[in-house]
Amino acid sequence: MTDDMSPAERYAAARSRAAEQATALLPFRAMYDFDLDPFQIDACRALEAGKGVLVAAPTGSGKTIVGEFAVHLALAQGRKCFYTTPIKALSNQKYNDLVKRYGAAKVGLLTGDNSVNSEAPVIVMTTEVLRNMLYAGSQSLTGLGYVVMDEVHYLSDRFRGAVWEEVIIHLPESVTLVSLSATVSNAEEFGDWLDTVRGDTEVIVSEHRPVPLWQHVLAGRRMYDLFEEKSGRDGAGRREVNPDLVRLARMENSRPTGPRDRRRGRVLREADRERERRQRSRIWTPSRVEVIDRLDAEGLLPAITFIFSRAGCEAAVQQCLAAGLRLNDEPARRRVREIVERRTATIPDEDLHVLGYFEWLEGLERGIAAHHAGMLPTFKEVVEELFVQGLVKAVFATETLALGINMPARSVVLEKLVKWNGQQHADITPGEYTQLTGRAGRRGIDVEGHAVVLWQRAMDPEALAGLAGTRTYPLRSSFKPSYNMAVNLVSQFGRHRSRELLETSFAQFQADRSVVGISRQVQKNEEGLEGYRASMTCHLGDFEEYARLRRDLKERETELAKQGAAQRRVAAAAALEKLRPGDVIHVPTGKYAGLALVLDPGLPAGRSNGHRGFDHHDGPRPLVLTAERQVKRLASIDFPVPVEALDRMRIPKSFNARSPHSRRDLASALRTRAGHITPERHRRGRAPAADDAEIARLRTEIRAHPCHGCSDREDHARWAERYHRLRRDTRQLERRIEGRTNTIARTFDRVYALLSDLGYLRGDEVTEDGRRLARLYGELDLLASECLRAGVWNDLKPAELAACASALVYEARSADDALPPKLPTGAAQQALGEMVRIWGRLDALEEEHRINQTEGVGQREPDLGFAWSAHRWASGHGLDEVLREVEMPAGDFVRWCKQVIDVLGQIAEAAPDGTPIRRNARRAVDGMLRGVVAYSSVG
């Protein structure tokens, strides 16, 4: 190869090799038994050159290599590196990975409930821990050289996203930032913002998947490829939706939905239906057992099946066990039992039964498991470990598994393309589809990955191809200033500088960028307005003034016409309300115009003469018998003018509106009784416009205006109308610009004003109460501070304090109309009631200051649903007893307990020294941190 080079090329190559030998990248690459991809090398080189980097690449592409290079650089330079992750499970996993590479002495872990070797040069932590360090001015920040933000696209998260931006904005300038993100469609925009707030940042985007992904649809016994490769006229290949799938969907969706044969108009016999099913439906949605069997037969295990329901995941495991499915041989079963028993040795025997241990173990031994947030953390970690080792081959998981946990599979199965988003059942987005299917294909193990979607009735292959073909999704900031953020910022920077810092957020950056396009449109509109103004110019006078008079006249006439129509509707409704059964009326218009007998006045509510009223929002809807023997319920639209009874008739008690005979006899009597009566014509009164002084004045001014006599008047008027419409649109755009400019700062101003009213801030000074608020993090930070200030918790025992603390963090998964929660009695119940009353006062104050919870700012109502459980657990009751009383999955129970422990720790720090509340908060932590809650999740 070198023989083909010129001397100059050989010299350049030699210099390049020599330069590479002198870098930190070369020994780093030697630590791996595979070569790095081009995007990884580019990112590492940028880092070594002193630049920050943003790496956006698909799931499973190995972007964490770049984060590990930052760790390598920090250790080589004698500096610190913080590796942040969005969730504790990912922190634990990364901690274990780095310990294996660099040794336990050099790596530490800091999460909400774990602290291991916290002074190590490399610390893995959740992003919230780093945010709290920055606000507290922690000594641990000394010597910090690099911060890796894994899964940085989390800043789109509605609840926690603001934390990522806080960290990025407040990190010291000397710190180099490494941002690792899923593939997002606006990586360049995010990179531009990082460049603005952090300095020189290189954006490296890779769309390449190291393991190719094949997309399939499993229908009945057949696995269809979603795409088919076609060669174009130019010889280039292109992907099209598989025509077999399109035909399948067309055939399936054309089938009749019910048992009625539409051709013969009769109900099919069961045998006919069965024959039709066999002939026309070779497809069905395969069962979970059939899917795993099929994947096993095709060599596509291990697989993760995403089911958007915890109960569905557990049911899937039970279905596989009931079907006798076994994916492990005897040696694998023994290995599974050995690992499980070692990892769960610390769990007391009496808790194992409560946790469903034996059923869980049976599934694991067969190679089958569930994975969801309701599971005990230890159980989830065991499933992850066994899956990575190939000892669990089929996992049924909720979408939370897709959020960063390193559990690649050969195949990923999606049961449905619809999931519950907390408010409604919604189609999954292209971004979610990419995140879920990104787990398919294990680098270094699989040649290709497979994404399998199960066939569902009414499936649209084109829509599925759109999901699979859209590889990216945009990163949108969810940043909003909170009360805690406000006092911390003012404490460090003062009000004015805090305001300026918030203006540098990604949220404001995006808002300002969106304004650029609108401003450009405003500019175009203004150019158009100049042209319209020139075209409507009249040599006789000011045509803009003349057009305004005409417009005012038209608006006034329209307004009066609407008022007149409304008055007529009111009069007609009032007349209908006076009708009674037996009244003979003349229906003035509509399909059933003519003579009619009122059977039921159809009043909006109540009962009338034995007839049920109806809940109508548009007034009475009388039920009538027409002279043509039809019984119909009329609407207000049939009575544009008031109606009066022409006569009255007795309705026989035996009358049955459903009987043709009854209708015929009564209609005949109606014609005989009132057929000769001619209804009075309703005379419409004088139009309001005829006597309106404003209309008279405008008409006089229009006739007197010089432009009224212009021969081109109507031509000018058309241009004037276009001018008016464009000017109205332009003003709307200008209002949108005003609404988006300085939005974050304006929200901060409102938060600052509320905190000043409550005495937390005084100018640029943070008061003693404010310093307490600065140590309280969470959605209900201000409520917690107000409770401390009011002494609500002063006389509570530890378990009672735990119950109150739970209301600050817990949010029920069920709907609002659930039964009232069970509460502990005595002092705890009184304190919880006082917390809700304080929240009510804060809510009213937020409304006064125009602080809106729907915008992500403000205090939600405290949820008391976990108070009983927290009180019982902190009081020392057993796991079996507590879980049975609340019917809560063990994983949820542990997660909420850990959040209660976290907020109790904050309360202990924020409470004044020497107070009983500080002492009791720590005792409550001790009471909560036991049994399943205390099991270490660091392996």
3D structure, described in words:
With 939 residues, this protein is α/β, with parallel strands linked by helices. 48% of the residues lie in helices and 13% in strands. Strands 4-3-5-2-6-7-1-8 form an 8-stranded mixed β-sheet, with helices on both faces. Strand 29 and strand 30 (765-766) form a beta hairpin.
Short account of what is shown:
With 939 residues, this protein is an alpha/beta fold. The chain contains 34 helices and 30 strands. 38% of the residues are buried.
Q: Strand sequence of the main sheet, in spatial order?
A: 4-3-5-2-6-7-1-8
Query: What's the total number of strands?
Result: 30
Average predicted confidence as pLDDT: 83
Shape: globular
Q: Strand count, sense and closure of the main sheet?
A: 8 strands, mixed
Q: Which strand-content bin applies to the residues?
A: 5-15%
Distance between the termini: 49 Å
Helical content band: 40-55%
- Gyration radius, rounded: 36 Å
Helical element count?
34
Low-confidence blocks of residues: 257-268, 606-616
What structural class do you assign from the helix and strand content? Answer: alpha/beta
Helix and strand topology:
Elements: H1 7-21, H2 25-29, H3 38-48, E1 52-56, H4 64-77, E2 80-85, H5 88-102, E3 107-110, E4 115-116, E5 122-126, H6 127-136, E6 144-149, H7 161-170, E7 176-181, H8 187-198, E8 201-205, E9 213-219, E10 222-225, E11 227-231, E12 237-241, H9 243-253, E13 260-261, E14 266-267, H10 270-280, H11 288-297, E15 303-306, H12 310-322, H13 330-343, H14 349-354, H15 357-365, E16 368-371, H16 377-388, E17 394-397, E18 411-414, E19 418-420, E20 425-427, H17 430-437, E21 449-454, H18 461-469, H19 483-503, H20 506-535, H21 543-577, E22 583-587, E23 594-600, E24 607-608, E25 611-612, E26 623-626, E27 631-633, E28 647-648, H22 660-674, H23 693-704, H24 713-740, H25 743-757, E29 761-762, E30 765-766, H26 768-773, H27 781-790, H28 798-806, H29 827-848, H30 867-874, H31 879-886, H32 890-910, H33 916-928, H34 931-934
